[in-house]
Amino acid sequence: RTGDLSNARGYLERGKNILEIVVDPTGEGHALLALGHTALTEGRADEAQGFFHRLLEMQEEVGNRFLLARAIGALGELARARGKLDDAEEQYRRALEIHESIGSRLTWMTRLNLGLVLLARGDYSGNLALVTTVAAELGRGAAPSQLCWLPKRPKGTAGATKPKTPFDWRPRSGPGSAATTWPPASTAKLIV
Protein backbone atom coordinates (compact mmCIF):
# COMPACT_ATOMS: atom_id res chain seq x y z
CA ARG A 1 0.00 0.00 0.00
CA THR A 2 1.13 3.52 -0.74
CA GLY A 3 2.29 5.38 2.35
CA ASP A 4 2.57 2.31 4.59
CA LEU A 5 5.88 3.22 6.24
CA SER A 6 5.69 0.54 8.93
CA ASN A 7 5.51 -2.13 6.24
CA ALA A 8 8.38 -0.51 4.34
CA ARG A 9 10.40 -0.31 7.55
CA GLY A 10 9.96 -4.07 8.06
CA TYR A 11 11.21 -4.87 4.56
CA LEU A 12 14.15 -2.51 4.96
CA GLU A 13 15.13 -4.08 8.30
CA ARG A 14 15.02 -7.60 6.79
CA GLY A 15 17.06 -6.46 3.81
CA LYS A 16 19.63 -4.76 6.06
CA ASN A 17 19.96 -7.93 8.14
CA ILE A 18 20.60 -10.02 5.03
CA LEU A 19 23.17 -7.51 3.78
CA GLU A 20 24.97 -7.65 7.15
CA ILE A 21 25.23 -11.43 6.84
CA VAL A 22 26.65 -11.32 3.31
CA VAL A 23 28.94 -8.39 4.27
CA ASP A 24 27.74 -5.84 1.75
CA PRO A 25 28.53 -2.43 3.29
CA THR A 26 27.19 -0.58 0.24
CA GLY A 27 23.82 -2.36 0.30
CA GLU A 28 23.65 -2.17 4.07
CA GLY A 29 24.53 1.52 3.85
CA HIS A 30 21.65 2.20 1.48
CA ALA A 31 19.34 0.28 3.82
CA LEU A 32 20.52 2.32 6.83
CA LEU A 33 19.97 5.53 4.89
CA ALA A 34 16.44 4.46 3.92
CA LEU A 35 15.65 3.35 7.49
CA GLY A 36 16.89 6.68 8.81
CA HIS A 37 14.77 8.65 6.35
CA THR A 38 11.75 6.51 7.21
CA ALA A 39 12.27 7.11 10.93
CA LEU A 40 12.69 10.85 10.33
CA THR A 41 9.52 10.96 8.23
CA GLU A 42 7.66 9.19 11.03
CA GLY A 43 8.92 11.73 13.57
CA ARG A 44 11.39 9.41 15.32
CA ALA A 45 14.41 11.72 15.13
CA ASP A 46 16.51 9.90 17.73
CA GLU A 47 16.13 6.61 15.89
CA ALA A 48 16.96 8.32 12.59
CA GLN A 49 20.09 9.77 14.18
CA GLY A 50 21.17 6.27 15.21
CA PHE A 51 20.78 4.96 11.65
CA PHE A 52 22.61 7.94 10.15
CA HIS A 53 25.51 7.67 12.63
CA ARG A 54 25.86 3.92 11.98
CA LEU A 55 25.94 4.69 8.26
CA LEU A 56 28.55 7.41 8.80
CA GLU A 57 30.82 5.16 10.88
CA MET A 58 30.49 2.26 8.43
CA GLN A 59 31.29 4.37 5.38
CA GLU A 60 34.24 6.07 7.08
CA GLU A 61 35.61 2.59 7.76
CA VAL A 62 35.11 1.19 4.23
CA GLY A 63 35.91 4.44 2.42
CA ASN A 64 32.74 4.78 0.32
CA ARG A 65 32.81 8.55 -0.16
CA PHE A 66 29.44 8.66 -1.94
CA LEU A 67 27.59 7.05 0.98
CA LEU A 68 29.72 9.05 3.39
CA ALA A 69 28.43 12.25 1.76
CA ARG A 70 24.88 10.87 1.91
CA ALA A 71 25.28 10.11 5.63
CA ILE A 72 26.59 13.61 6.35
CA GLY A 73 23.78 15.13 4.28
CA ALA A 74 21.24 13.03 6.19
CA LEU A 75 22.64 14.37 9.46
CA GLY A 76 22.11 17.83 7.96
CA GLU A 77 18.47 16.96 7.27
CA LEU A 78 18.09 15.79 10.85
CA ALA A 79 19.64 18.99 12.21
CA ARG A 80 17.39 21.09 9.97
CA ALA A 81 14.31 19.15 11.12
CA ARG A 82 15.32 19.88 14.71
CA GLY A 83 15.77 23.58 13.91
CA LYS A 84 19.56 23.49 14.41
CA LEU A 85 20.40 25.56 11.35
CA ASP A 86 24.10 26.07 12.17
CA ASP A 87 24.63 22.31 12.43
CA ALA A 88 22.56 21.71 9.31
CA GLU A 89 24.57 24.21 7.30
CA GLU A 90 27.87 22.70 8.47
CA GLN A 91 26.76 19.17 7.54
CA TYR A 92 25.42 20.21 4.15
CA ARG A 93 28.62 22.07 3.32
CA ARG A 94 30.70 19.00 4.30
CA ALA A 95 28.47 16.73 2.20
CA LEU A 96 28.60 19.12 -0.75
CA GLU A 97 32.40 19.23 -0.62
CA ILE A 98 32.57 15.43 -0.82
CA HIS A 99 29.92 15.20 -3.55
CA GLU A 100 31.81 17.75 -5.63
CA SER A 101 35.18 16.06 -5.06
CA ILE A 102 33.92 12.73 -6.40
CA GLY A 103 31.80 14.17 -9.21
CA SER A 104 28.54 12.94 -7.68
CA ARG A 105 25.30 13.55 -9.52
CA LEU A 106 23.61 14.38 -6.20
CA THR A 107 25.25 17.75 -5.65
CA TRP A 108 21.94 19.32 -6.73
CA MET A 109 20.08 17.77 -3.79
CA THR A 110 22.65 18.93 -1.25
CA ARG A 111 22.66 22.43 -2.74
CA LEU A 112 18.87 22.66 -2.47
CA ASN A 113 18.95 21.45 1.14
CA LEU A 114 21.65 24.00 1.95
CA GLY A 115 19.53 26.59 0.17
CA LEU A 116 16.61 25.80 2.48
CA VAL A 117 18.82 26.54 5.47
CA LEU A 118 19.93 29.85 3.95
CA LEU A 119 16.34 30.70 3.09
CA ALA A 120 15.20 29.98 6.65
CA ARG A 121 17.83 32.45 7.84
CA GLY A 122 16.70 35.10 5.37
CA ASP A 123 19.77 34.78 3.12
CA TYR A 124 17.78 35.09 -0.10
CA SER A 125 20.76 35.92 -2.29
CA GLY A 126 22.67 32.87 -1.02
CA ASN A 127 19.65 30.69 -1.66
CA LEU A 128 19.18 32.17 -5.12
CA ALA A 129 22.82 31.49 -6.01
CA LEU A 130 22.41 27.83 -5.03
CA VAL A 131 19.11 27.41 -6.90
CA THR A 132 20.61 29.08 -9.97
CA THR A 133 23.55 26.66 -9.83
CA VAL A 134 21.17 23.71 -9.53
CA ALA A 135 19.15 24.94 -12.49
CA ALA A 136 22.33 25.16 -14.57
CA GLU A 137 23.48 21.70 -13.42
CA LEU A 138 20.23 19.91 -14.10
CA GLY A 139 19.17 21.78 -17.20
CA ARG A 140 16.79 20.12 -19.61
CA GLY A 141 17.86 16.58 -18.75
CA ALA A 142 16.39 16.68 -15.27
CA ALA A 143 13.95 14.07 -14.00
CA PRO A 144 10.36 15.20 -13.32
CA SER A 145 11.00 15.14 -9.55
CA GLN A 146 13.90 17.53 -10.08
CA LEU A 147 12.06 19.77 -12.52
CA CYS A 148 9.56 20.94 -9.90
CA TRP A 149 12.39 23.05 -8.40
CA LEU A 150 13.57 24.46 -11.71
CA PRO A 151 12.28 27.63 -13.28
CA LYS A 152 9.58 27.29 -15.89
CA ARG A 153 10.35 28.97 -19.19
CA PRO A 154 7.71 31.36 -20.47
CA LYS A 155 5.74 30.19 -23.52
CA GLY A 156 7.47 30.85 -26.80
CA THR A 157 10.98 30.59 -25.33
CA ALA A 158 11.58 26.85 -25.78
CA GLY A 159 14.88 27.50 -27.53
CA ALA A 160 16.15 29.88 -24.86
CA THR A 161 19.01 28.59 -22.74
CA LYS A 162 18.09 30.55 -19.63
CA PRO A 163 15.87 33.42 -18.50
CA LYS A 164 17.22 36.97 -18.56
CA THR A 165 17.45 37.09 -14.79
CA PRO A 166 16.71 34.58 -12.04
CA PHE A 167 13.67 36.66 -11.14
CA ASP A 168 12.06 35.83 -14.51
CA TRP A 169 11.65 32.23 -13.37
CA ARG A 170 8.38 30.73 -12.25
CA PRO A 171 8.66 27.56 -10.16
CA ARG A 172 6.35 24.80 -11.41
CA SER A 173 5.34 23.81 -7.91
CA GLY A 174 6.54 24.13 -4.36
CA PRO A 175 7.90 27.36 -2.91
CA GLY A 176 7.05 30.33 -5.07
CA SER A 177 4.28 28.67 -7.03
CA ALA A 178 1.00 30.48 -7.52
CA ALA A 179 -0.43 28.64 -4.51
CA THR A 180 2.23 29.79 -2.05
CA THR A 181 4.10 32.89 -1.04
CA TRP A 182 7.85 33.29 -1.23
CA PRO A 183 9.57 32.49 1.03
CA PRO A 184 7.29 30.04 2.83
CA ALA A 185 7.19 30.42 6.59
CA SER A 186 7.77 26.69 7.13
CA THR A 187 10.94 26.49 5.06
CA ALA A 188 13.10 25.36 7.98
CA LYS A 189 10.91 22.28 8.44
CA LEU A 190 10.98 21.14 4.82
CA ILE A 191 12.98 18.04 4.00
CA VAL A 192 14.02 17.45 0.45
Give a description of the structure.
With 192 residues, the chain is an all-alpha fold. It has eight helices and two strands. It has a two-stranded antiparallel sheet. The longest helix has 18 residues, at 45-62. The chain starts with a helix and ends in a 21-residue tail after the last strand. Mean pLDDT is 75; it is low at 157-192.
> Strands across the major sheet, in which order?
1-2
**Tally the helices: what do you get?**
8
What would you call the shape? globular
The low-pLDDT segments are: 157-192
Which percent band covers the strand fraction?
Answer: under 5%
- List the secondary-structure elements in sequence, H or E: HHHHHHHHEE
Radius of gyration: 18 Å
Structural class based on helices, strands and sheet pairing? mainly alpha
The end-to-end distance, rounded to whole angstroms, is: 22 Å
Helical content class: 55-70%
Q: In this structure, how is the largest beta sheet organized?
A: 2 strands, antiparallel
pLDDT averaged residue by residue: 75
Write down how many β-strands occur, each being a DSSP E stretch of 2 or more residues. 2
Gist of the model:
The chain is mainly α and 192 residues long. It is 62% helix and 2% strand. It has helices at residues 5-21, 25-41, 45-62, 65-81, 85-102, 107-120, 124-138, 144-147; strands at residues 151-152, 170-171.
